[in-house]
Amino acid sequence: MELFIGNQNYSSWSLRAWLIFSQYNLDVKVTKLKLFTEDFYTTLEDITPTAKVPTLVHDGVTVWDSLAILEFVNEQHLQGRAWPRKAFERAKARAIAAEMHSGFFDLRNELPMNIRARRSVELTEGALRDIKRIDAIWSEQAKLYPGEWLFGDWSIADAMYAPVALRFQTYGVELSEGASAYQQKVLTSDSLQQWLREASLEKDIVEEDEVGEAV
């Protein structure tokens, strides 16, 4: 398997797809491309129709889109272990993951992932609503699974929300007690720590993701 990703400091969707390989210690070749460069597009143009990352190539099959990659790996290599075992929890986990996959546009636009930065931004009402909703999701699951992942064991739902934990850290977003506890579990996990170490080695600047005032 070969996984194409972008700059680890900025590429939130790359992180989501990469996490399942790290969490389950799956063998994968990771090829990192610098976002918005000529090499980025020329490398991907013959691999994926979207010319975007992440993209997974495996045994002649190309899978683009983070959630599709997570689902593919879960089905092909994990026998479904990356979703909760109980049907009703699995349905809820999928709904939560889909909510992130297709929503929270104000949050994503106003708080781009930028791991090494500490910034202050003026948020719109839309972004504040997104934050409130994510806080509610994390808090509710923290009551059900104190000190654990969203559904006890790590799942695809956790992969979908991991970049948000980093965004909240970058922009100093205050969370409720339960949501903050979950955020810290994400940030201190072995997989996130590995990603952070690798991201810290990068020197590239993506200007469009350098928003807000430095703190």
UniProtKB/TrEMBL annotation:
UniProt keyword annotations, A-Z: Transferase
InterPro entries: Glutathione-S-Trfase_C_sf, Glutathione_S-Trfase_N, Thioredoxin-like_sf
GO BP: glutathione metabolic process; L-phenylalanine catabolic process
Pfam hit, one: GST_N_2
GO molecular function, one term: glutathione transferase activity
CDD domains: GST_C_3, GST_N_1
SUPFAM superfamilies (alphabetical): GST C-terminal domain-like (SSF47616), Thioredoxin-like (SSF52833)
Gene3D superfamilies reported for this sequence: 1.20.1050.10, Glutaredoxin
Domain GST N-terminal intervals: 1-81
Protein name as catalogued: Glutathione S-transferase
